[in-house]
Amino acid sequence: MNREFDCIKLANMGFYAFHGTTKAEKEIGQRFFMDVELFLDLSTAGKTDNIRHTVNYEKVYNIITDVTKKRKYNLLEALAEDIVDEIAAHFPNLDRIRVKVRKPQVPLCGILDYVEVCIDRINPAKQPPSGEERKYDSKNS
Fold first, then answer.
1. Going by C-beta distance under 8 Å and a sequence separation of 6 or more, which residues neighbour residue 20?
2. Looking at 9, 59, 72, 103, which residue is catalytic?
3. Does the global pTM surpass 0.90?
4. Is 103 in the active site?
């Protein structure tokens, strides 16, 4: 399948949570910011103006909130991976999901704006049968 994907983006969502590897991070907590990009064909939704042909981003936001607050993660990578998995489980029509998690207050001796982890996955429900490769334009990688 060679085509560009349309995208819905939830940008710069903010959450107060208790993720990190130090005791202080897990007790005091801090702000985390996230971007989520949902790739799918939006042409039918655009032509019909019907929410059944797209992704309800309020539900996506609620999933992200639930995952972010349900447990204390050590790693941003694990948090992002769980967000991707939960979104994929609820929306099998998605082709691809990209999650970026930013942590502004990083406990290190240095100055930086934030640390960011980006997880970019093809929806397992859209994976080709084993032995077959899925092809994307280089622009989509």
1. 26, 30, 74, 103, 107
2. 103
3. no
4. yes
